[in-house]
Specification:
It is built from 9 helices and 10 strands. The strands form 2 sheets. A 6-stranded mixed β-sheet has the order 6-7-8-3-9-10, sandwiched between helices. Helices cover 37% and strands 25% of the residues. α3 packs antiparallel against α4.
Amino acid sequence: MIEIRNLNKDYGSQKALQNVNLTIEQGEIIGLFGENGAGKTTLMKCILDLIGYKGDILLDGEPITRKNIGRISFATCEHSFFPNLTASAHADFYREHFPNFREKRFHGLMDFFQLPENKKLRAFSTGQQNQFEVILALSQGADYILMDEPFAGNDVFNREDFYKVLIGILEPDETILLSTHLIEEVSGFIGRAILIHHGEIVGNAEVSDLEEQGISLMSYIKEIYGYQSNRVSRALADISGKEE
């Protein structure tokens, strides 16, 4: 279990995260939602101890250090692979550094995405690089897999098929924390939705509970964020009025 207690992160005078308290149980599939700049990426980087912060983040009651960081993997659209290495060389590197590296999963996902194993990553397209980033995160053998907008540059069919494959390959004790703007696409895939706004957790709901109440995930998110349904019509009226 990952426990986040009173987490705060500032960038100068800007508060990126404010008093975040959150528990992530092993085996969950969680969607992390929020507008650009809400603090989603910052939260993930704090969990990975990539940036300094105030507060506590514990993994099974222990601080996250070099001793246990291998239990967490990260797929980011900023990319964390070595661009001058081939996919096969990455597999060799992961096999050497991560004892739980999932060999069969790695090659199976490479086949699924039809990615060449003997081609340098810098020669991959942006979409292929994002796919490979996800493959590495899923193959590392981590208990907690963090994904930050991992599907950028991928078409809707690739994304839809990947969700199905992901559900099929995950072990019961593997955890996914997925940050994405593709709310409707992942609504049938995630089990819990966490909403962040201006660095604060403003929503935390089980998708099954919402369904029992007849509430869609999108409706829940719009309600929490106070979405104004007449926003577009008002904007069009203002624009048209200025041009007359």
